[in-house]
Every structure is written in C-alpha cells, then in structure tokens.
Amino acid sequence: MSCNAHKLRPMTEGTTINAHLTPLPDKVGVDGLEDKWRAVWDEDGTYQFRNTRDRKAVYSIDTPPPTVSGSLHVGHVFSYTHTDVIARFKRMQGYDVFYPMGWDDNGLPTERRVQNYYGVRVDTSMPYDPDFEPPFEGTDGKKIDAKDQVPVSRQNFIELCEKLTAQDEKLFEALWRRLGLSVDWSQTYHTIGEHPRRVAQKAFLRNLARGEAYQQDAPGLWDVTFQTAVAQAELESREYPGFYHKVAFRFEDGTPIYIETTRPELLAACTSLIAHPDDERYKPYFGQEVYSPLFRVKVPILAHPAAEMDKGAGIAMCCTFGDVTDVQWWRELKLPTRSIIQRNGRIVMDIPEWIESEAGRAVFAETAGKTTFSARKIIVDKLRESGDLDGEPTPTKRMTNFYEKGDKPLEIVTSRQWYLKNGGTDKTLNAELIARGKELEFHPDFMRVRYENWVNGLNGDWLISRQRFFGVPFPLWYPLDEAGEPDYANPIVPSEDLLPIDPTIDVPAGYTAEQRDVPGGFTAENDIMDTWATSSLTPQIVTHWAEPDEESQALFNATFPMDLRPQGQDIIRTWLFSTVDRAHLENGCLPWAHAALSGWILDPDHKKMSKSKGNVVVPNEPIEKFGADAVRYWSANARLGLDATYDEGQMKIGRRLAIKLLNATKFALAIGREDENHHVGESAVASWNPADVTEPLDRAAMAKLALVVTQATEALNAYEHSKALEVIESFFWQFCDDYIELVKNRAYGTADEQGKAPSEAAVKSARTALGLGLDAFARLLAPYLPYASEEVWSWMHEGEGSVHRAAWPTAEPYAQAATGVSPEVLAWAGKAVEQLRKIKSEAKVSMKTPILSVALSAAREGVDAIKASMGDIAQAGRVVGRFDLVEKHAEEAAAADSAAVAADADAAGSAAETLVAIESSELGEPPAKKPKA
Predict the structure, then answer these.
(1) Which of 316, 608, 884, 911 makes an SS bond possible with 897, Cβ 3.0 to 4.6 Å?
(2) Phi, psi at residue 191, to the nearest 5°?
(3) Largest Cα–Cα distance of the chain, in whole Å?
C-alpha cells in the first residue's frame, strides 16, 4: 500500500500554519484530561471508520480479541498500545483506519470461569429450565468443587456464559477507552456472536466440501480434567516427576529382556518392544517374541529408527498409547490397538480380550476403574511379587505434555474427531504455507523463523473439535440407521443461508423434531469447534467475508487482505499460523501484509508476568497512579519482539513528558498575550510562515525538526515505534531545555543588558519557530500521548478538529524554514549555555546571577555556530559584559577530550563537553532573595 494515499484532511494550505489560539488555563496538568477528551472523541466520532471504498486509502487492522474470562493484566496494555501507536500514525498519514475490537468469549477459560462464578456444571441429560437461578453470583475467585456445583442443562449453561461475558466485556471496554485506544467502537464483535458463528460455520462447510476438513477415529491427546481433545498447538511441555521401573519381559524359556518405563500401569496395553535398527544389543532379537509380565501377552520385538539407543535400556515397550512416539510406532508398524485408558483418565472396566491367562485377567480386574496413579501402585506391587521388577524404582524427571491450561499430564485416547488440513500430513500444502510465511512481513523479522520452525515440525493435521459446551457448534447432523447407529460417513449439512445453526436445537431439512435420536431419524453432532477455529477467522469476520449484501461486499473489498496483525510472539504457532492456513485455503492469499509481534512483560525480578506466578499487575493501578499517557509512554518504549520490564520509573518519566508538553506549549502560546497577572483570557490568531524564520538559531531548530520528522516517519513506517519515540522525545527535551531557554527573551522582545531590543523580524522569527515547533510536537507525540497532545492542539487550533485527524508532519516546511542552516548550530549554542550555567552551579549561586565577563573556547567547527547565536546565548546566560569566544586548536581539543575521558570514564558525554570550555569568567552579585511572605 502506498503511503501517498488520499489524505482525509490536510492540516495546512501551502506551508503556512494558521493557528486559532484559545484562552489558556492558569494551571495545567494531566489530571482530568482523559475524561474530558474521551467524551469529545465519542461525541465527534473521531476514530470511526469513514467507509472509504478505495482499498489503497484504507489501513485495516486485525485487532486481537482478548479472552474475556477474567481480568486483564498490564501485559495486555503493553501490546495493545503498540498497535494503537501505529493506528494513530496511519490515521494521521491520511488513511481511513479500520480498527475494530473483538472479544474472544468462547472456549474452556470461559467455561471454567462460569462454573466457578455461578457454581454450576453441565449435565446434558437435563432439560432446559427457563426460570433457572444460579446458586452463586461470584465466588471471590474461589474454586467450587465439582461435587458442590449444581447440574444444569447445556442451554442454561450457555446462557450463563453469555451473561457473564457480556459483563466482562463492559469492564474491558472501559479500560481500553481509558487507555486511549483509538478503536472504532461501532465495529465490535464477540466470537460467539451470530455473525462470527455464521462465518465459522460457513468456512467449515466450504472446507468440508473441498475435502480440507475430515473426521477420523484416531489416537489423540486428551485432557482428563477438561474432558476434551487437545491440539498440537495447545501443548505445553513441562517437567514432571516420576520413577523409572526396570521390568522384565521374558522369552519362552524364561530368559528376561529388560525395559525401563515410567508408566508400568500401561503394561496391559503393550503391543511390542522396539529398539533402534542399528543397536547391536538387540539386533539378534528382532523378529522374535516375548511375553509381557503379569499378563503373559505375546508381543514381537521390532526395529524402528525413532527408538533412542541412549535412553533407559535402549529398548522400549510400545503401548497404545503412552506418548506420541507410541502413536508413530503404532501407525508406521501397523500395530494392534490395545487401549485401556478411558476419557476420564481411569482404566477401562472390562477386561481386554487379548489378556487370556487367568492370572493376568485377575491382575487386570484389580486395576479396572482405577486412576492411572492407583493402577500404577497395584502393578508395581504385583511386579515385585512376581520377581519381574529388577531393583526398586529410581526417581526421574521427564518432560511431559500438558494442555496449556491444564493441571494434569495429557493422556492419548482413541476417539472420533474433526481435523482441518494444515500441512502436517500434506507436503505440498506444507510447502505452500512456508511460502506464505516468506511473503509475510514480520516485525521484527527474526520472528519469521518461529513460524517456519512450527510449520516444518508439524506431524499431524489440526484437531479442531472439542468436547465442550460453550462454542461454535459444528453445523452437522448424522442419519441414523434402523439400529439407531449414526452414519458418520454421510453427514447432513445445512444450506449456507440458514447459518448459523445449532444442530442440538435445529432440525435438518427433510426431518421432523420427533425423529431426533430415534432409529431411522437423525442425531446432532455434539462437538463444538476449538476456539482457535473461530479466532483464526478474525480477518474474515471483521471484513464481512462472504456476506451477501452489497454493503458487506464493499467493506470486504476495501479492507481485505488486511494490513496488520498485531499479537503476542507466544501464539505464532496458534493464532498467526492458523489464520494464515485458513486464508490460504479459503481466499488463496495472506490474510494481512504485516505481523507485529510484541514480547512479554517481566516483573521487576525479570520473570514473566502470569496469574499462576501471582506477579500480575492490574492495569487500572498504574493508569490511576500515573495517567494513561504515562502508561502508554512506558509501553511504547519497548521494541517489538523483545520482553520489557514493568517499570514505574519509566511511567513517571512519561508523566513528566506529558506535563512538559503542556507547560512548554502554554509558555510559548502565552508570549505577547498575557495581562499583568500573567493570564491569557482572549482568543487570538497567529500565522506561522516558515519564510518568517530568519535567525540562524531558529533556522537550526527547524533543520533539526526536519531531520526528526524524517527519522520518526521512517521508523514508524517500519513499525519501529520505540525508535520513533526515542528520536522525537530526545529533540523535544532539547527544544525545551535549550532552544526555548535560548530564545525566550528574544521572543518576548526583551532588551538586552545594554538596552538594545531585538528587531521586529527577530522577534517574529522566534515566535514563528516556537509555533511551528510546538505544533509539530503536538502531532509527533499524538500517537504516544493522545490526551496531552489533544489538549495542547486544542489551544492552537480551536474549531479545527482533533489532532488525531490532523496531518502527520512532513519535513519540507521545516527544511524550507532552515534554508540550509545546520542543526548543529542549536547543538553548539546549547553546549555554550551549558558552560555558562556551569559557572553558576559550581559557584553555588542563582542562575539569575549576571556574568560580568566570560571567555569561552570551542573547537573550530563550533566557533561560527556559536557566533551566529551569541546574542541569544548571552541573554540566556545573563552575560552583561564582555563575551569572548576563541578557537581551540584540534590538538588541544583532542588532548582535553582524552584527559576528560581518563578522569571520568563513566561520565557520559564528558568528552563532548570539552568541545566548549570556560577559559575565564567573572560573576556579578547574585540577585537579592525575596523575603518570605
């Protein structure tokens, strides 16, 4: 997209800025600005999308929908600020910014919160109760045991989910508004809403029609707590304590062969022993058979390259299923299925038919229905008794798969699930998705490798079905045969114009409600889609993909593919990749051009903030304490892709910056307008024409401003918001501390100590440069400090609208004002004033103390620059007498620099200070102190 897109409203005609100045407040501060300007923005629709239909003039953002299953923490504020800075910048560049907000309100986190908040659980056998009242309304975060939760119907539970998420969304929106997010609040959605459900179901049906979605009975990862299947992208590997058990399998003659296992409770599920084909220890045994201990089931000894020769005994038992390697062996070696773990995590009740010995059947009967922990204890005791346990179990820690939100290790169970192709089983699709990743602009670019590593490491398609209740239903039914068995191979699908549907409530065409769940009738698909299966379609949801009305089609054409996906770097494998997959399959393109990836927030001890660690900071606290602009400043100082420490010290700096912007702007705008009480009570008009900047120092300030505008614009166009802020802030402080101090007397028209007043042109030059500069700073800082920037803009441009709809500064007018003067003139003048102040600080006298005479020396390149500003330097330093400047020769300057560095190696800039030095000086009498009132 070209950055020269149609501008919505240029701020100036030509290069002159015509300012309409308001009366000024007697006191300024950041308190109260948030409520004031938020109300104005809402009333004026400042951030509303203008429905531009030209794609080149639109900048569209796929905003992350936060999970509304609890409370936000300051890490959310951190990453969403990064997005908002870019949104505000693009809007000021003239784009019509499409910046919606969604709420991710379905899935396991919401269900768990609702269970605890209301004290309920789902019982699918219960009928809907329209008058149901939950036993609790909030439990202060305490977890209610399942046995104490009141059973409710699925529909009652869904209604409670919708009720609670609606309450949470209001709190979240209030926080985002206070932070100053420039979201278009008329463009909101929630992932369980009617439109998102229609999009998710429509996309699934099209995937199904193209053969990209399929169902399969297969082993899969299962969370026994949440009672649902878990996808590869949702895994979290954690260290888990256990014990190695050295167990004997025996040949026909009783000769043992030992394996080491951490899961002896799965001995009854053993299908084979497997070693590496190059392992000399076991080569002689490949193809032979041995008996499993206790159960005496005959199993073969096989070879497979995935066996690890240096792990344990080097030979492992393959059970169906202990881990994902077992699944690989089972699939590739075509082993029998001998599952003994149920979905509830307990051993099956019925004794398996492959256990034929009476002794083995008796042992299994003792473990039937037990948890894996209890079954393990029984099996280990039996192995001791039989003599098949060699020695005692030895402690170990192993990396085990957990569901990212779960508390117990995952099991692998066989079940019917829905899958979506993602390149895990299709090499052609995998290569296409790798190519999509190369098309995408990653910010920072080094994050690209995470995407590629994930896609290259996929070992299966995307499991998208979940055995839960609050989510988008699969829009399917199945015909039942005369025995009442479902025909899963021939699902009944609705037409797209009927979507969204709930198959547990709605009836398929050609059937009646009375035929539900009866032989010859139909039954509903009870599973719901994984929450990522909906969230992966956020670009299609917000841009109204595949909606039939003309307005939706126009919106889609103007906003898709989108420009930006901002998100956390930890969900590249889930949200980013799955969204790329869906757009590639459905739209044949990337869903967006850029991905901006934020790092994590660390606590002061440099540990990642998380609820489980108890080190989370609630975002309302720092906003209340320091203000939204200050918190945004801290957030924006962090670079994309890098972790940042929660730092209230930086927030204090941000608050000072906002206050300084207010004070500096008020000071400059008050010049020539104050009454005898320093009050500005009248409006005024000012014209700031770059051609009126005639003094060298003023032109140098404009030259530096032109450079800053160029550098900040380049950085923001490259999504380097922190670099842009650094450039802007650095010059802003130089502008305030050096430039304003140097020119304020001239701007006021104050005569010097000899009674000589500056010329009218010199006064106008200073006032124009101050106006141009502070007008630019209001715009440059607007993406970072929206409240303070809006306040000062309103003082300068009454009736001209928001600064956030003003044009982003361009370098040309400031370069024009500079007329070739170097920005170094300002730098040298600042160094000279610094030395004059140093005379007084070392003498411990007031800065108002006059300097009767002074001689400064400067390096050759600085002499002419300082001479060009001698009058302003003298006024700023209160030099009332002789003021000499001598050139310091290169050799002398170099020697002085070296001496300064050697004397104080830690003093930043010490060498630079010697470029201007005091040769001699004489102070006058300090001004008399005013008596205390």
Answers:
(1) 911
(2) -65, -10
(3) 119
Q: Kindly indicate the confidence band of residue 10, based on its pLDDT and cuts at 50, 70 and 90.
A: very low
- 810 and 828 co-located in one domain: no
Q: Which segments are annotated as binding site?
A: 611
Residue 543: count of CB within 10 angstroms of its CB? 24
| Least confident interval from 271-275, 572-576, 677-681, 910-914 | 910-914
Question: Do residue 761 and residue 682 come from a single domain?
Answer: yes
Residue 373, CB-side half-sphere exposure with 13 Å CA sphere? 5
The separation between CA 326 and the C-alpha centre of its own chain, rounded to angstroms, equals 36
Cα three-residue angle 817-820-825, rounded to 5 degrees? 90
Domain with 876, as residue range(s), is: 823-897+914-928
| Binding residue numbers for ATP | 611
Together in a domain, 422 and 403: no
Instruction: Summarize pLDDT for 623-663 with one digit per residue, the tens.
Output: 999 999 999 999 999 999 999 999 999 999 999 999 999 99
Same domain, 744 and 681: yes
- What are the b/e assignments for 668-701, b being 16+ CB within 10 Å? bbebebeeeeeebeeeeebebbbebbbbbbbbbb
385 shares a domain with 277: yes
User: Based on the domain organization, do 707 and 784 belong to the same domain?
Assistant: yes
Q: How does residue 5 score in pLDDT terms, banded at 50, 70 and 90? A: very low
CATH of the domain at 735: 1.10.730.10
Residue 767, helix vs strand vs coil: helix
Q: Note the pLDDT of residue 240.
A: 87
CA–CA dist 585, 210 (Å, integer) = 9
Closest of 519, 559, 566, 527 to residue 541, by C-alpha: 559
3-state DSSP assignment of residue 530? coil
Q: Is residue 75 part of a domain?
A: no
Do residues 246 and 345 both lie within one domain? Answer: yes
- pLDDT given for residue 397 in this prediction: 86
pTM of the model: 0.84
